[in-house]
Amino acid sequence: LPVILVLQKPNGSRLLLSLVRALGLDHRPLFIDLLRNFKAGGEMDRLQQFRLRPCLGLLRALKYRLQYWDPTAFDNDMNKLRVFTRGLESHGIGVPGSAAHTVNFWLYPIICPPHVHPKRMERALEAYGVFASLGSTQLTLIHPPATGSYPRPTNADALMKQVLYLPVHRHVSEEQLRVMSRAVVHAFSALAQPQPRARL
Fold first, then answer.
1. What is the pTM of this model?
2. pLDDT tens per residue, the chain (200 residues)?
3. Where are the domains of the chain?
4. What is the CATH class of 70-195?
5. Which of 57, 115, 144, 151 has its CA 20 to 30 A from that of 86?
6. Which of 112, 115, 111 is nearest to 95 (CA)?
């Protein structure tokens, strides 16, 4: 429970982040596992674990967040992130779900260019100091039965293969969002250009 509550606060998560980095560890898989409260496994493993009751620590963390939730501050933070989203979309960067009536930005996905693997975009953003992630979600494709009664969700499959998650949430400052926006636009523009073929 103490670790979960620490992760609820920006200062606490920054302190834990500094400690993990000082130990030479990659913070991303550690933070993701702590927040999920279970390690990602196979498709059936995830489905089995979703049926379990959340642990007491997660329930207490939820109670804590609901007790101290400030709707005005939340709306201000969401407006800040909507401005960030419009900036990316104005440069042709797709943000899935941005047209939904209610968007809470729990995760922040972007769509990489069709010929660019998200791993390349992830490395390009790291060069700008933006640590995006391929594994921030347990979203997975459920394949239809082999009976042929249901078509394969080809659009969803193609979309999920091009998604990269940015480290964007309500506690990121406007200045940090501006820096991140420039980095994403630069990386996107550089990688979106077709690579010249080598002459033989």
1. 0.69
2. 455 556 556 666 677 778 888 888 777 776 666 655 555 555 555 556 556 667 777 788 888 888 988 999 989 989 999 999 999 999 999 999 888 888 887 789 999 988 889 999 999 999 998 988 886 566 677 777 777 777 777 777 778 888 999 989 888 899 999 999 999 999 999 887 765 554 54
3. 1-69, 70-195
4. alpha beta
5. 115
6. 111
